[in-house]
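User: Need the bound-state model for S-adenosylmethionine:
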Amino acid sequence: MRVLVGCEYSGRVRQAFRNLGHDAFSCDLLESEDASPFHIQGDVLPILTDGWDLAIFHPPCTHLAVSGSRWFKDKVKEQSEALAFVQTLMDAPIPMIAIENPISVISSRIRKPDQIIQPWQFGHGETKATCLWLKGLPKLTPTSVVDGREARVHRMPPSPDRWKERSRTYQGVADAMAAQWGTPANE
Ligand SMILES: C[S@@+](CC[C@H](N)C(=O)[O-])C[C@H]1O[C@@H](n2cnc3c(N)ncnc32)[C@H](O)[C@@H]1O
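Assistant: Bound-state model below.
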């Protein structure tokens, strides 16, 4: 299956699909953390029409996440551009699409998510509500419900890379996406 993982610098979801034999690529304005040859550095929009079977997008939540709502009134233009970007990704001519974001205004301004998942459902003892908007895909089934409900990301000290630490996709979630949304490549 040809898989596009848009807005991903970590390579986690791309690599989870590649490990199962899929022709998967990540794409981000940033370079990939793992220096993979299967990373496309640049804007994801021009490659949406390149014949993908499945796409998973992690669009920036800076101007969308409800956790930053006190700044919304100063960011009307940025928020409207961010929502237009998400809408373009949702409307991409790709049969199966998943959009991932925290609790955000996407729910009120575009539509409600199909599912809200937590890291603790996929082997990580942490809380971080993550919404999924799905097209042509089933909801993810939890793979490993574990104890521990720590909000680790909120306690991280300030640093230039704090946003990266907070936004990297959990490995258990990446693995579940590949296992449950990728049909076996050799069948
Ligand atoms: C919240 S982060 C997602 C990180 C992801 N979960 C991961 O594990 O790598 C959003 C990413 O979207 C990227 N981005 C923003 N606009 C983009 C665009 N037009 N095309 C490609 N990537 C974009 C940013 O550079 C940023 O790395």
